[in-house]
Each structure stands twice: as structure tokens, then as C-alpha cells.
Amino acid sequence: MTIGVAFIGAGLFVKDYHLPGVQATPDLELKAVYSRSVKSASSIAADQNLDCYAEDADQGLDQLLAREDIQAVIIALPITHQAQYVRAALSAGKHVLSEKPIAKDLAEATALLDWYHTTILPAGKATWSVAENYRHFDTLRHARAQLHRLGRIRQFRVQVYLDCRPGKFMFWPFFERAWRQQPDHQGGAVLDVGVHHVAAMRYLLGARESDRITQVSALVGRFADALPPVDTVDAVLRTESGAQGTFQFSMCSSLTESGWTVVGEKGHVRVNEDVVVVTVEDEQEMEAKRPSEKLAVVKEIRAWGAALVSGEFQPEQRPEEALADLEVIELMLKSGEENGVPQTTMYQIV
Fold first, then answer.
1. Which domain holds residue 202?
2. In this protein, which residues make up the domain named Gfo/Idh/MocA-like oxidoreductase N-terminal (predicted)?
3. Residue 269 is part of a domain; what is its CATH number?
4. Which of 81, 235, 248, 344 has its CA at a distance of 20 to 30 angstroms from the CA of residue 306?
5. Which is nearest to 148 in space by CA: 208, 199, 188, 97?
6. How much is the pLDDT for 48?
7. 45 touches 30 (CB < 8 A)
């Protein structure tokens, strides 16, 4: 069984990452693209015979969603636009994989998720998944599998150092877009990029329910002009078990040693996108290098396609996980606005 799929959105990420992901997924067949303009829609896989739908064409979103040979859509749009398209696609009975974050803020996300649970799921026709490619990094999956060897978790650390200046930041072409240069979503790149690293942190800690985040305190700032409104976060977090952690995120740093560290009573695990180092009882036992392919987006889309066919949906792509990721970012920003006042989580039980 092959699932007919369409793209809603035709930006660089769709072309450079989603398209190779669908092409590498035997369970999916790309049928069509929708965008604001025919020109934009037709730029995706120009060498393929794809049907193009657009706001400036006779055939638009309604016509795409009415097609019976399209059972699923991948939605990748500016953050504040996504929710309305998620609603439209699910209402039309299409399975949805929407890009992170789940929504622009907790209010929109919880309303959308409540509607999904009360209106869409009972009908049994369509499912909603939220993309988070970091949960598909081989290094993070390998590291998570080692945590049981550490005993009780005591500390954790997330370090994200990026230099967002043109010519320094490999993903700068994605951030030249107007909606990222002048964002109308909270936190700017702190939400857009930071949510990946929160998701990875939660994924690592999520091997144990007692290590879910319960409290967040943060200071935020803006130290460069490239990405408003803020580009830096320094946060302290606590888990239900009492473990303490830090989250240091900067889009304007000359440092490069980004990654995640988890410290337990018997040792620690250090991980980045390519390397995992496990140290137990003072002995470094393992170093695993597992390069990620296309930022693991190919793995992510393959997993989604397989889930659509089997009906066994991926826990890593549940919208409840994406809600919990968004909550941590939003509470960091709120705490920063209040000069570090601690914030208590509500949506970490997923």
C-alpha cells in the first residue's frame, strides 16, 4: 500500500529536506504541492510531473484537499500560519505531518490539540503527527539507551552555540526569509531553533518518567541585530526526581562545542549530532560515531510513512510531545520577561 502525499508549503526546507525524505520513503508517493504562488509550487521537484496548487491559481487548497488519491500532507509554513492549515487538512480527512513547533504559543496549541482529540480522533479517519527530526538522530537514540547504566540522574546540560552572521551560519539562507527576520511569533529563533534542542533534552530524559521537567527559570537577551527579538537564553531547570539542569542557547556565539550531557550517580553520557561518549565508573567504555543523514529528516519521514501504513503511530511524533517541547520554550521566555521568576510546567506528562 502506497500513501499519496502532498506538500503544503514550498520553501527551502521542503525542497532540501522533505522532498528527499519522501523520495526515500517507499510507503509514500508525492502527488502535488500547494503554495502561495504557482511559481513557488512549481519550484519543488521541477523535473517531476507534480500537480501544482496555489493561491494565485484556479486550483487552490480546497481542490488539493478534495483529491481522493492524496491521503496525507506534510505542512511546512511560517510558524503563525500552520495551525489553520493543520485544521483544514485534518477536517478534510487527511493525515498530517506538520513541522515543529506545534503552534505559535501554548494557547493556540492546546486549543488545536483539544479540537483534535474531541473532533478528529473519534472519527477515526485522520491522524496528526508533529515533526521533530532531532528525536531521530542516531546519537540521541543511542545515548538514551545508555542512561539506565548511570543510576539516578543528578544533572544535565544543554549547550547550543551558533554564530548566526551571514557567511558563518550554514543555515543562514533559511533565516533570510522575511518571517524569520521580522518574526511575529514569540522568541524568534529561540522558539524556531531552540525547540529542537529542548526536544532532544526531553527525549534523553524521557527514558524515565520521573525525569520530566517540572520547573524552569531563565534569563533571555539580545546581543546581535540579525535575529530579533531575542537570541540568547540561559536557563535552569528541575525535574520531578530532583535532578538539576542548565540550558544555554545562543545564536551569536563564537563557541562551537554544542551538545547534551547527562550526569548520573555512576557516570555520564555526552552526545552531539555525531558522537556519543559513555563513561561509567570512571571508565570510558564507548565512543560511537553515527552521522545523521539530512539532519535525520529522511528517517523521520520514513518513520511517518511506515506508521501510516501499519497504523502503529510513532510516539516521537505525537503532538503531545510537541506541546511539551513548546511549553518549556514558552516558560523560558516568560521567566526571562519576569527577570528569572521560576515557572511551573503543566504539559510534561505525555
1. 134-292+325-344
2. 3-114
3. 3.30.360.10
4. 81
5. 208
6. 83
7. yes
Mean pLDDT by 10 residues, the chain (350 residues): 95 94 96 94 86 93 98 97 98 98 98 98 96 94 93 96 79 76 89 96 87 97 90 97 97 90 96 90 73 83 97 94 98 98 92
Task: Provide the pLDDT for residue 296.
Answer: 92
- For 290, the grid coordinates are 553515527
Q: What is the pTM of this model?
A: 0.95
pLDDT at 291: 63
**100 and 190 inside one domain:** no
The residue assigned the cell 510513532 is 314
**Assigned domain for 318 exists:** no
> In the prediction, which pLDDT does 169 show?
72
Mind spelling out the 3-state secondary structure of 285-330? EEEEECCCCHHHHHHHHHHHHHHHHHCCCCHHHCHHHHHHHHHHHH
DSSP secondary structure letter of residue 190:
H
Report the CATH number that the domain containing residue 101 is assigned in CATH. 3.40.50.720
Same domain, 180 and 110: no
Counting every residue written for the chain, the total comes to: 350
Look at the chain and report how many structural domains it folds into: 2
Nearest to 134 by CA among 200, 193, 206, 189: 200
Q: What pLDDT is recorded for position 198?
A: 97
State the Cα–Cα distance between residues 189 and 184, nearest whole angstrom.
Answer: 11
Same domain, yes or no, for 119 and 149?
no
Q: How many CB atoms lie within 10 A of CB 150?
A: 19
Beta bridge partner(s), residue 246: 157, 236
